[in-house]
Amino acid sequence: MELCVPPHPCVTRTNSSSSHLLNPSPRIFLPTTHHPLVSISRRNMQKSTICSSASSTIKALDSPMDTVRDRIGSVKRVTNETNVVVELNLDGVGSPDSTTGIPFLDHMLDQLASHGLFDVHVKAVGDTHIDDHHTNEDVGLAIGTALLNALGDRKGINRFGDFTAPLDEALVHVALDLSGRPHLSYDLQIPTERVGTYDTQLVEHFFQSMVNTSGMTLHIRQLAGKNSHHIIEATFKAFARALRQAVEYDPRRRGTVPSSKGVLSRS
Q1: CA geometry: angle 100, 106, 109, nearest 5 deg
Q2: Mutual orientation of helices 202-214 and 133-151 as an angle, nearest 10°?
Q3: Least C-beta-crowded within 10 Å: which of 29, 64, 84, 245?
Q4: Could you give the CA distance from residue 72 to residue 235 in angstroms, rounded to a whole number?
Q5: Is 144 within 8 Å of 52 (Cβ atoms)?
Q6: pLDDT digits (tens, 9 = 90+) for 184-202
Q7: Spatial distance between the Cα atoms of 196 and 253, rounded to a whole number of angstroms
Q8: What is the rounded CA–CA span in Å between residue 78 and residue 69?
């Protein structure tokens, strides 16, 4: 019998029934759930698994992401020309809910929510019976302020974002830096003066307003495109994806400010 382990009471011996074998050797079957050595081995494996799980949990808790709540900025801006309310959740699910009185701007804000995975809720009433200028501007100002408030001290974020978005024949590149220093470089060649009732000059004015209050460096560059709607929509989609990159957390930073100065503030 070739076995070093003493047999367990539940071990069953069986002999070969073949008569021509000169030295039939008994075979031993060890039920894996009863033998003490097997049980010890299983307990050790379970302990190892538990320790491994605990280590993973501890490691996960070290990440800044586990201690961060949703970053939400809320703004109410009231002037003699407009009344604007904005709520922006940077850690949302892409929920759009915008009613500005400017249908095309609502459509663009929906792109910001959907492609940035931000919850963008905007309610605005303005003097659109004159034109869309004041409402468009104040919505941009309010969204920029909400972004500033939601970002807080900007600890742990990527800070930079870069994305190029195609929409049929249009191709637009957006690069941005949440530096605290407002700057806009804008290079779109929109061929028509209007898309629907929306004055296409207001695209630049929207982004300039948002840059001024958020403290963002923003570069927008058209690489291709002939259709005005496509060019503008590709711009908002590229901006949404670039902003999403910039506000997301970099786990290697462990919650530190992404600046050699140690601070990112609105200047």
Answers
A1: 115
A2: 30
A3: 29
A4: 24
A5: no
A6: 999 999 999 999 999 999 9
A7: 45
A8: 29
